[in-house]
Amino acid sequence: MAEKQQQGSNVEEGSSTAAGKVVCVTGASGYIASWIVKLLLDRGYTVHGTVRDTADPNKTLHLRALDGANDRLQLFNANLLEEGSFDAAIDGCECVFHAASPVFFTIKDPKAELLDSAVSGTLNVLRSCKKASVKRVVITSSMAAVTFNGRPRTPDVIVDETWFSVPELCEKHQQWYVLSKTLAEEAAWKFSKDNELEIVVMHPTMVIGPLLQPTLNASVEVILNLINGSSSTYPNFAHGWVNVKDVALAHILAYEVPSADGRYCIVERVVHYLELVKIISKMYPNISLPYKCGDGEPLFPTYQVSTDKIRSLGAELIPLEKTIKETIESLKEKGFFAL
To answer: Per-residue pLDDT averaged across 44-72, rounded?
Structure first.
């Protein structure tokens, strides 16, 4: 209830200043981006959303169904690799939320599937922002661009916004998604400095929670694979988790709060998959869950991520237990899982 009240008060505060303001969300059909669009519309903004194909119902129907969409949502075709394709959508916007970026954990051609889209796409969007004299750009990055640097992560270690992933290390270990996020952020900061464009970069961790889109995205699929009986083992890994609604709201606060700057880690809690299985088992005792770790190695250690900076924007983070429940209930509602 406290979480709902907190988000509700934020909506009310934003609504009084949002009327008449036009903002853009790139990759609007995506998991995080759809929620950004929804919360912006709830707050009274007029939203320009870009998608790869406005004729594709999987990309548009869930957006057009949102409250306020009929009057205050306009969708545009845009392609990350086509320079200038974002000009029309961004023209006249005060802020751009750049959420469009590929998310694949298993890939065959890293350059074509991830690196070109992430880096060139980010620069294409920023060039359009410069042309349109956009006041602020809020970029969706990832904790992947923060933590992959060889520094130890143990229970007493606190990761914060001063950490940066190391591109050479990413490439050495063939961590292509991590590399894409790291290089895209580097390119964005360089462009920002060279062109005096104000950017804020958001670094969510593994994002789960309710789906607005009809298709399954990579991060929520991780939860589905734990509960659908497809495996008897769980990964020997620990990382952060956060609710998609909190991530979307944090993006909006990064625009609305004048003092917002730099980078923001968005992590409610870091847990091992073993702990995740325990939480799900307690909530849903009838679900058949993996019963052993995927390898015989010692459990991967947990670590901490500072929430001080993201909370300074006024963000409150939904507890992981509630987020897991919302995720599973959404998977059931969308027909991806049945008890």
So the answer is: 97
Segment 6-34 mean pLDDT: 74
pTM above 0.85, yes or no: yes
Alpha helices in the chain (DSSP H): 2-18, 31-43, 57-64, 69-72, 87-90, 110, 116-131, 144-147, 167-172, 176-195, 218-227, 244-256, 273-283, 308-311, 320-333
The Cα 154–Cα 159 span in angstroms is 10
Cα 293 to Cα 300: distance, rounded to the nearest angstrom = 10
Using pLDDT thresholds of 50, 70 and 90, give the confidence band for residue 2: very low
Angle at 163 between CA 134 and CA 146, to 5 degrees: 65
Tell me the residue type at 245: K
Tokens 């988000």 label which residue?
7
Q: How far apart are CA 26 and CA 78, in angstroms?
A: 8
Residue 206 to residues 103, 203, 266, 268, Cα–Cα distance (Å)? 11, 10, 10, 10
Residue count of the chain: 339
d(CA 30, CA 21): 22
Which pair of structure tokens corresponds to residue 212? 């607005």
State how far the Cα of 319 lies from the Cα of 186, in Å rounded to an integer.
31
Smallest Cα–Cα separation from 32: which of 220, 178, 184? 220
